[in-house]
Amino acid sequence: MGSSESALRKDIEIGEEVPRTAAVYRIWSDVFPCVEGKRWRRTLFVRRFAKTDSNETRCFFENGIKRLRQLRHPYIVEYVASSVGVDELSLLTERVNMLDLTVESLLPIEVHTGLAHILSALIFLHEKAALSHNNVSPSSVFVSLDGRWKLSGFECAQELHNTHHWVQSDFVRSVKDSMFSPPEDELMLKTDIPPTARDAFAFGKLIAYAMPYIQPYLPAETIGALEEISRCLTNADATKRGELASVANSHEVAFKNILLVIVDFLQTVHLKTREEKAHFFRNIIDWLREIPQVVIGRRLISLLLSRYVLLEQEAHSTLIPFVVRPSDLENNEPVQGLLPLGEYRRWIVPELLRIFHVHEISVRIALLAHFMLYIPFFMRSQIENEVLPELLLGMRDADDRVVCASLHAMAHLVPLLGGPAVTGLIHAKSFADGAPKKAGIYSLTNDRSPQISSPIDVSLRGYEMTAERKNEPQSSSSYLSRMLSEEDLADDCNVRLRLMSQTDGIHNELEQSHSIAESRELQGNDWCVDWDENEKEASPVFSSSRHEVLTPLSGTSSIASYEADINCRKPKFEIGMNYDMPSMNKSVAKGVDVVNYFADMEPVFAKAPSLIERLECQIAAKVKEANRIARSRFAALSEDEGLSEGVDLGAWEAEVADWDAD
């Protein structure tokens, strides 16, 4: 495409050409959507000059580029770059769409708002720039990506004080749409007319052009005002058309809708008074519900999350929490949010990610204030690649407020990414779960679910701990406190009652066991041998109690019956009862007849010994050691030792004979 290609297009990727049915081809030879620097979306306009084109034609295009480069307005197409060559001219602008190709896909509120945009741009030209456009038509009106209508095509523009109009130029006649040309241009009249009359006439025709797309949806009052303005502006007498600014002021309802109110306020929120801000943020949520979701996404998201809004305290209490959350979840559960999840991820998530790259203290703190509301709806890749690096950067900032907010936000990422991904460290288990297993404290049912034996059944443990109790006396309540925290039973009165009755039984057993242990020290060597044999036979009486499971008590009658049952099953120790063989056999038989209520249950094997089991092992080891010491103390002397020392065994043998006779 000539020498201009290297100057303008070396960093541009050109897309598919705009359809040739667009009215913009009345002026330009080619129009392409493109991407500049693999980042910015642009539109490229190209005009190829034929050999028959005069220098006047080239001057018109150069005039258009000059005016567009000078003008800066929200509703005028943004100029980016241009290149003028011998054979062609190129103009690079922001990405825009052709109005005549897009108008049918726009919603009525967008079309109505677009008319207000073009009116605002024309008033700016007439009153601020002192220019007249002279070619307002669908070929010079474009739609930006955010839905705004923008004015371009300034090839025929001229200053207001210039009374000469190029109506007789071949180029002007070729590019202007006859439908939007005033009668004086059709008749090629050179009479003096107001310099803004042509733009007023063209805008009146533009209203008529858009009327079919908005008439069925707007209020009758608004439609009537628009029709009246269109008739006034298209008057054949140019002197009776009036100025666009005065016409707009006299018919305020014609170009007013809720979208325009919100946009205008958000763009100038920093200039509003405190009362105006309070009223706006108090009602904006209800206003937003009246606007279609697509329009909110295209037109309002960037304004609702703009810097000025993020810095408003009123917005943080009502508006921002409503905006940054979706209106439903993936399971269609309703939530107090602005957009559904699909539209939320399309419009709001990219805007939030863009704000994360703004390195300003107030903006970052305001953004992180609602971090937990929106971060669960981000993709994992977005969190890892964009959000997490920005939070790490904030943690190293010199401002303590940014560091504090960043650390709070990092905590919310742990459930989403995991600890190692957030901290970047190798994690090892340093803490154990010491919480009590409440399922084992309460009663167990007859179902076949996994069961945990009760830690309260400690009859045998109390007996085995007798030797240790001699040196370290403790109450039964202190013993239970090691097994179970009292706080775990605060909500279960039945279990508390059961514990009290079981504690009394344990206390009695411990006292009886203590007396037995003392009597053992008074007996001889043969007494110890008999006791070891009897202990093995009597062990089932106690071992059976280890597998009994307590059930919750309901009512006083159940408590009484339970205490009676405990007293019946509680072993009673007396001095010398171990030498009573009938009694011992009876106790053995009684232990065998004990009904095993859990015989049909599947055994459950713990993967690791619990704290209580480890305590049992330690206690059993200490008891075993105490028994060994007792046996060694009462062991009989060897024959050689007895003879060497001259010990008289007659009295000892006589005493043993008396015991046997008894």
From TrEMBL:
**Classification via PROSITE patterns:** PROTEIN_KINASE_DOM (PS50011)
Where does the Protein kinase domain lie? 1-362
Supply one GO molecular-function term: ATP binding
What InterPro entries does the record tag this protein with?
Answer: ARM-like, ARM-type_fold, CIK-Related_Protein, Kinase-like_dom_sf, Prot_kinase_dom
The family database entries (Pfam families) matched by this protein are listed as: Pkinase
- Superkingdom in the source lineage: Eukaryota
Spell out the family assignment given in the record's similarity comment: Belongs to the protein kinase superfamily.
Q: What is this protein called?
A: Protein-associating with the carboxyl-terminal domain of ezrin
Query: According to the entry, what is the taxonomic lineage of the organism?
Result: Eukaryota, Metazoa, Ecdysozoa, Nematoda, Chromadorea
